[in-house]
Known about the structure:
Elements lengths: L7 E4 L7 E4 L3 H24 L13 H13 L6 H40 L1
Antiparallel strand pairs: 1-2
Helix pairs in contact: 1-3
Amino acid sequence: MAVPRSTKVSIDFGGDGRFVVEVAELDGLIRGLSEARDAIVKINRDVKRSLDVGIPPSEDPYSPDAMRKIIECAVKSGSGDHSSANQVYQEVVQQMIDKLAAAKQQYARAEGTNRSAVEGKG
């Protein structure tokens, strides 16, 4: 369906304002956010895999323990760690995707209703 470039929808992502976007740009926004979400998932998976990475031996007795603690802080389950932050980020991006998709569907339904009304009068 060809959408006029000037057709816009207003989407509430929460907070005090609304986000206004051209309907013709919805697919691109959804695609870009989906790619971002997939990248977040991959990063989180890679960070979790870092637990399996062996700590290289070092002449410095403190380095292996420091590396182990850094890795544990990145992936341990709890508030403020890398993995939890990534999970929240992934969920927020998914909510944005869902709202954009819902706006697109709502526009398509309204457009279909309008088209049916016009064709029914002809």
